[in-house]
Every structure is written in structure tokens, then in C-alpha cells.
Amino acid sequence: SFITNNIIVRTEPIKMVAISCARLNASVARAQCAPRAAPAFRAAPLRPSRMAPATVTPMVRPVVAAKAANEPAVPAVMGAAPEEKKIMGISAFTWQKIIPLGIMFFCILYNYTILRDTKDVLVVTAPGSGAEIIPFLKTWVNLPMAIGFTILYTKLANVLSQEQLFYTCIIPFIAFFGAFAFMIYPIRDILHPTAFCENLLQEMGPRFAGPIAIVRNWTYCLFYVMAELWGSVVVSVLFWGLANTVTTVDEAKQFYPLFGLGANVALIFSGRAVKYFSAVRANLPPGVDGWAVSLRGMMSLVLVFGLLIAANYFLVNKFLLPKAKLPAQSAPKTKKKKAKMSVPESLKFLASQKYIRDLATLVVAYGISINLVEVTWKSKIKAQFPNPNDYSSFMGDFSTYTGVVTFTMMLVSRFIFRKFGWGTAALITPVVLFITGVMFFSLVLFSDALTPTIAALGMTPLFAAVLVGAAQNIFSKSSKYSLFDPCKEMAYIPLDTETKVKGKAAIDVVCNPLGKSGGALIQQFLILGFGSLAASTPYLAVFLFATVALWIKSSISLNGQFTELTKEDIKAEMKKSDETEVKVESKVGEGGMIEGEVVPKDKTVALSSASED
Questions:
Q1: Span 455-485, pLDDT tens digits
Q2: Of the candidates 434, 430, 456, which has an alpha carbon nearest to the alpha carbon of residue 556?
């Protein structure tokens, strides 16, 4: 009986062998207790009803060894198997993946907040510039550079490993931001063609002030584009590419919303850092370039956190990936070997898939929608806060409040994913944009009728528009970070490796700037057609609501495809399990989520056999 309890029993034939093994081992034990009889036993041939020890050993020992090594390939053990160590109900190994990813996301978003606030102050307050420069920048500078990066990234992805690709992309960013503060900005007067652009502006007229300001302040514009690309490349491609590699769909549903918790704590602290350096700049004595001091301080923080990102990635690759239980989709799905695709072939391949098109529509729609409101809002901010110190201070407060609201949304989002699923979570962001957009445009279009009410609150219509626009951006961005981004990244997981890697590069790097540039193009055409941004505001509202409607339609379509792909993966795993000695039993668990348990196929037979023995 003792021996039987330590033998894995799979089927009836093996059961009989196990019983024979138990009887044989008992005979061997009795023989070993009598030394004189032992040689006779070893020399005498065994009866046919018994098996030689040499035959039994290979059957029993590998099972015991597998049990000692805790290998998942062994399906059923007659006895309580040691449970995997858990912390707060979560596997310890899962925490080893989540914590480094959270730290990395924290550092990336800390830098992005500083860069985002700094780039706006740089270009809006630059000599001969203003808020009108932003649409031209996004359309004619940011988008071409994003496309160029995508082409380069696609080529590098074919020749470099994932680790080499990460360092090749992030190191130039860190080097540029450090060089800008300590080398480029101090000699800006030498680098900027100020006199040439002033003469050009006199000859061509003020309607070309935006494009001329780009040429005049080209180093500031380069900083603006690099800061925009940091969000597209480092956040979307590099970080989420790594996260999708090491996490499964179940882990993603549980932890992707929580990745933003640490990131939005960084958003709060980085907003305080921007406000602090704004105050330092304002309190410096006359004759000191306060903005240069602020730039050096903020870019020093960007350098430190950038190096932390690279170090964290190194540690993840060194200690985590070699022993990680990677999701099945991280390995390429079985395909015929084919030649590497060129860039046009890759884009054609991606455009031919409805799944990728719907996903791209979500990203482009968000960029257009937020841009249609954001640029108008920033022009209001400059009108309310013409002083760069005040402008930067307000943006620091804006970032802090964004972090607080987003942190709260991150906590709520976990419940939303568990209770309502991917489809509902994906629809919340466009709905929030629609509601807040209605509020913002109503205030702008009907400001005269609302003036008495606004005055009773002690505010001017301009300041009220600034606050409502800030609230619109805060709630839109919080829903994006807590729901839209996790939904978007989850959508990549069921895809094969080729579509996942090249699809992310095309969607996140091209479609994101394309959405922003598309919104900027709409604004440019409307301004040229109606003479001013204020006159085109009603038509901007129409474009906003039409874009949100298309966004909602694509979200519903993508939800159906995502659900179908996930079901196919589950069926594939079930079919694979049918070919082994285990099966999957499912049940409806907490929150209505389907939970599965791997059990031996012949668990009932094995238990009854053990009880009989």
C-alpha cells in the first residue's frame, strides 16, 4: 500500500503493472532482510507473473523525478502535490513579472509627462510662435518623422533581436534630451535663422506665421517631435511589446489596468516636478536664463529615469525571460517558412486584415478626437496665461490632477474588466469623449448665454473654457490610460508574432501621429475656409461627433473578432489537452468569469484503484 500511494496510475493496464511492482518490491524487501537468501533470489529467474527490477525502474523513477522538479507535464499524482507559492492569491512568479513591468512603466510615464509639458511651453512661447504652430507641426513634421521611424523600425526588426532593438530605439532618445538641455539650447541663437525668418515673414505675410515659426525655431520643433515620438515608440512599441511577450491573456486582463497605477503615481510626481521648476524659474534674479535652468533640471530627471528604464529592461532579460512561462502566442504559430517581407509588403499585409484595420481605426479616431478639442483648449490657455511661468505652472497642475483621476480610474477599471469584459471597457473612452466634448463645445458656442451664470461663479468665460477644457482632457486621458490602452494591448495578444510585431509598429507609430495630424489637417482647412478658429468651432464639433461614432462602430466590430480569436485559442488548448493525460474542467467563478482547472482524465479511476489497494 505504501508503494502504491507513490505511483502515478493513469489507466487500467498501468494499474496492473503498478500492483505487480508493489508485490515485487515487497518480495525484494523480504529477500534483502535475509542475507543468505539474497544471492539465490538474484540468481533465480523470475516467474512470468512478475517483472524484473530493471524493467520497473524506468517506469517509476522518471515520474518521481518529475514530481520532485515540479514539472507541469505530470498530470496526476496520487497524493497532495506541493502548491505553488502565492502572494495575495497571485503566483509568486507572476509577481516577478508584474513588478518590473510596473517600475518600467512608472519611469516611462514620468519622463513622458515632463517631456509633454515642456514641449508645449517651448513651441507656444517661442519667439514669433504661438498655439497655431501645433497643427502645422503635427501634420508636416511629426507625421513624416513617424513614418520614417516606422520604416527604419520594420527593417531593424528583421535583423536585430528584441533586446538589441529595444536599446537601439531608446538610447538615441535619452542622448538627444540630455544634449538638448546642456548643448543645443545654450547655442540656440547661433542655430536659429532668426533674421532670415523675420525677413521671410515680412515678404510672405502673417498668414504663413506658423510654417515660418517652425523654421525659425527648428530645434524647439525637433524637441517637440522627439517628445511626441517618446510616447509612440517607448510607451506603445517598446514597453507594451515587452509586456505582451511575457504575459498571458489571463494575466493581461488582471494586471494591464494595474500597470497604470504606478505610472500615474509618476504622473502626479512629475506634475509636481514641472510646477517646482516653474517656480524656480520665476524666482531667479534678473539676467539669469530661468528657462535654461529649468530645462537642465527637468532633462536631468529624464536622463536618470531613462537609464533606469534601460537597466530594468536589462534585468528583465537577464533574470526573468530565461525562466518565464511565456504565452503560447509569443511563439510563432506554425507556418510555412517564407522570405522576409519588404516595408510595402508588410503594410499591405496589415491592411488586408480587418482585425488590424479596426484596431488602427480606434487609434486614429482617438488622435483626431482629442486633437480637435486639445488645440483649441491650448489656445485658450495661452490667452489666459500669456506668461511662460504661469503657462508651465498650470500644465504642472493639469498633469497632477490627471494622475490623480487616472489612478482612481485604474482601480475602477479592474472591476470593469472582470465584470463587463473587453467590449464594455473599450467603449467607455469614446463615450467619455463624446460627453465631455458636448460640454466643452457648448460652453464655447453658447458663452454669451452662459455669461451671467459664469460671472456668478466668479469666473470669466475664458477661464471657464480653460477649466472645462482641462476637465475634458483629464477625463479623456484617464479613461484612455486606464481602459483604452489596456484594451488595445490585449487585442494584440491572440495574434501571431509577425502580425503582432509589425502591426504594433504600423499602428502605434504611424496611426497615432496620423490621428493627431488628421485632426490638425481638419483644423487647418476649416481655419483657412472660415477665417479663424472661433468661426470654425461649430464644424469642429460636427467632425468630433462623427469621428466618435466611427470609433464606437469599430470597437463593437473588434470586440466580436477578439472574442472569436480568444475562443479559438481556448479550443486549441483544449484539443491539445485531449492528446495528453489531462483534461480541462471549466466552471463559472467569481464575477461571472469562466475559470478552468486541469485534472487527470482518469482521476476517478485512479482514486478508486488506490482505495482498492
A1: 888 888 788 888 888 988 888 888 887 788 8
A2: 430
- Count the residues in the chain: 613
Q: How many CB atoms lie within 10 A of CB 585?
A: 11
pLDDT over threshold 80, residue 30: no
Amino acid identity, position 43: A
Q: Categorise residue 421: left if φ over 0, alpha if ψ from -120 to 50, beta otherwise.
A: left
Assigned C-alpha cell, 81: 502535490
For 93, 128, 160, 235, 595, the CA distances from 598, given in Å and listed in that order, are 19, 68, 38, 36, 10
Instruction: Evaluate if pTM is beyond 0.70.
Output: no
> What SS3 string covers 485-517?
HHHHHHHHCCCCHHHHHHHHHHHHHHHHHHHHH
Distance between CA atoms of residues 20 and 30, nearest Å:
15
Q: Taken in order 295, 298, 303, 309, is the CA torsion positive or negative? A: negative
8 Å CB contact between 499 and 356:
yes
Sign for the CA dihedral angle at 456, 462, 465, 469 comes to negative
Computed on alpha carbons and rounded to an integer, the radius of gyration of the chain in Å comes to 31
> Could you read off the pLDDT of 413-422 as tens digits, one per residue?
878 888 888 8
- CA 316 to each of CA 151, 240, 251, 331: distance values in angstroms, whole numbers, following the listed order: 27, 14, 17, 18
C-alpha 32/C-alpha 30 separation (Å) is 5
Q: By CB neighbour count within 10 A (0-12 exposed, 13-18 middle, 19+ buried), where does 405 fall?
A: buried
Q: Please provide the DSSP assignment of 395-448 as one string.
A: HHHHHHHHHHHHHHHHHHHHHHHHHHHHHHHHHHHHHHHHHHHHHHHHHHHTHH
Helix extents (H) in 330-387:
343-351, 354-384
Other beta carbons within 10 angstroms of residue 76's beta carbon come to: 18
Could you read off the pLDDT of 151-161 as tens digits, one per residue?
A: 888 888 888 88
Rounded CA-CA distance 236/486 in Å is 11
Report the C-alpha gap between 544 and 450 in whole angstroms: 23
73 Cβ contact partners less than 8 Å away, ≥ 6 residues apart: 66
236-258 burial code (b ≥16 CB/10 A, e <16): bbbbbbbbbbbbbbebbbbbbbb
For residue 119, give the C-alpha cell. 514641449
* pLDDT (mean) for 3-13: 39
DSSP 8-state assignment for residue 591: G
47 by DSSP, 3-state: which?
coil
Instruction: Give φ, ψ of 90 to 5 degrees.
Output: -115, 140
Q: Which H or E run includes 599?
A: strand 594-600
Q: What band does 177 get if pLDDT is binned at 50, 70 and 90?
A: very high
In sequence order, which residues have a C-beta less than 8 Å from that of residue 521 and are 6 or more positions away? 135, 139
Q: Give residue 77's pLDDT.
A: 45
Pairing of strands 582-588, 90-91: unpaired
Torsion of CA 94, 96, 97, 101, to 10 degrees: 140
- CB contact at 8 A, 530 and 262: no
